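Action item from last meeting closed. Structure (149 res):
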């Protein structure tokens, strides 16, 4: 078995799916399907029954291709707070734990929160494309909300 530490997690061991090579500079390892491996690791983290660890939190953030600042904006936290969670200097709140798991599952199309990101994007787009049309009638002003022409 190969102890796969490059992902930043201590508990990942590969039974197969890799090739060992010898070179003048030493032993090398080639993972056959690195993207697939990371997806399985992330899904395992997202679906586990107990709280995620700081390193698992960081792994999911990286798999989401988010910076600490970007994730902080999504969660309403500072990048410094995200860093504290990832270093284990501050406990990861239950809602942040749930949010990062749901974001990851949604990102791979296995919605735990059925299409939440798409719905938020659609709502945002719809809101920004609305045009406020005001019409004066005999009883006073009336407002109609329509999408942009």
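Sequence:
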């Amino acid at each position: 078995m190969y102890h796969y530490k490059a992902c930043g997690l201590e508990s990942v061991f590969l039974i197969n799916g890799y090739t060992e090579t010898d070179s003048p500079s030493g032993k090398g390892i080639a993972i056959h399907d690195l993207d697939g491996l990371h997806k399985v690791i992330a899904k395992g983290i997202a679906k586990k029954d107990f709280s995620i660890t700081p390193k698992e939190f960081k792994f999911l953030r990286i798999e989401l291709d988010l910076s600490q600042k970007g994730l902080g904006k999504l969660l309403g936290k500072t990048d410094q707070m995200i860093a504290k969670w990832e270093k284990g200097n501050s406990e990861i709140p239950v809602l942040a734990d749930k949010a990062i798991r749901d974001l990851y599952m949604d990102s791979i199309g296995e919605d735990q929160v059925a299409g939440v990101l798409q719905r938020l994007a659609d709502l945002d787009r719809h809101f920004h494309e609305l045009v406020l049309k005001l019409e004066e009638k005999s009883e006073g002003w009336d407002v109609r909300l329509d999408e942009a022409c």
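Note appended to the action item: Residues 33-114 form a domain with the Putative cytoplasmic protein fold (CATH 1.10.3100.10).
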